[in-house]
UniProtKB/TrEMBL annotation:
<dbReference type="InterPro" id="IPR019888">
    <property type="entry name" value="Tscrpt_reg_AsnC-like"/>
</dbReference>
<dbReference type="Pfam" id="PF13404">
    <property type="entry name" value="HTH_AsnC-type"/>
</dbReference>
<dbReference type="InterPro" id="IPR036388">
    <property type="entry name" value="WH-like_DNA-bd_sf"/>
</dbReference>
<dbReference type="InterPro" id="IPR011008">
    <property type="entry name" value="Dimeric_a/b-barrel"/>
</dbReference>
<dbReference type="GO" id="GO:0005829">
    <property type="term" value="C:cytosol"/>
</dbReference>
<protein>
    <submittedName>
        <fullName>HTH-type transcriptional regulator LrpC</fullName>
    </submittedName>
</protein>
<keyword id="KW-0805">Transcription regulation</keyword>
<feature type="domain" description="HTH asnC-type">
    <location>
        <begin position="5"/>
        <end position="66"/>
    </location>
</feature>
<dbReference type="GO" id="GO:0043200">
    <property type="term" value="P:response to amino acid"/>
</dbReference>
<keyword id="KW-0238">DNA-binding</keyword>
<dbReference type="Pfam" id="PF01037">
    <property type="entry name" value="AsnC_trans_reg"/>
</dbReference>
<dbReference type="InterPro" id="IPR019887">
    <property type="entry name" value="Tscrpt_reg_AsnC/Lrp_C"/>
</dbReference>
<keyword id="KW-0804">Transcription</keyword>
<dbReference type="GO" id="GO:0043565">
    <property type="term" value="F:sequence-specific DNA binding"/>
</dbReference>
<dbReference type="InterPro" id="IPR000485">
    <property type="entry name" value="AsnC-type_HTH_dom"/>
</dbReference>
<dbReference type="InterPro" id="IPR036390">
    <property type="entry name" value="WH_DNA-bd_sf"/>
</dbReference>
Length: 151
């Protein structure tokens, strides 16, 4: 990691990861700093691109998305860029990674019904092979890897 963090930086990030609405003074109490000092550290962490934004965690099932699918996508010869654009343009893809191996992409879809799967993937079939797995359950949601402070 080229951007080094001290223990207080790591603690601030971990607190915000678990409660993105924690106030600067609440964070400060937990890490032994004043609210303004926490604000200054957050500003610095944004400046050095350790923090690139703040967001919200949604309960997608409460919003009607009850089915999730993992789709491996292997573009046909000469179709790599077109397929990548199609993935980016389809809003139901929640994430997509370019990977090594037989497939080029592994993407995650959110679905209201299983019937939507055909409608979403049909446009890809002229340009790519797709292999889909339905997610039965998730062991855990995305999480931070261990943060290692400099000493």
């Amino acid at each position: 990691m080229s951007k080094v963090l001290d223990q207080k930086d790591c603690s601030i990030i971990e607190i915000l990861d678990s409660d993105g609405r924690a106030s600067l003074s609440e964070i400060g109490k937990e890490v032994g700093l004043t609210g303004p000092a926490v604000g200054e550290r957050l500003r610095r962490l944004r400046e050095i691109d350790c923090i690139d934004g703040f967001g919200v965690r949604l309960d997608l099932q409460a919003l009607g998305y009850t089915i999730f699918a993992l789709v491996r996508i292997k573009p046909r010869s000469g179709q790599l860029r077109a397929v990548e654009q199609m993935i980016q343009d389809q809003p139901r893809f929640m994430s997509c990674d370019r990977v090594t191996g037989e497939d080029c992409y592994v993407a995650r879809l959110a679905l209201v019904t299983i019937a939507e799967l055909d409608d979403i993937l049909r446009p890809f079939h002229d340009r790519a092979e797709t292999h889909t797995s339905i997610v039965k359950s998730s062991i855990f949601t995305p999480r931070l890897p261990p943060l290692v402070p400099r000493d």
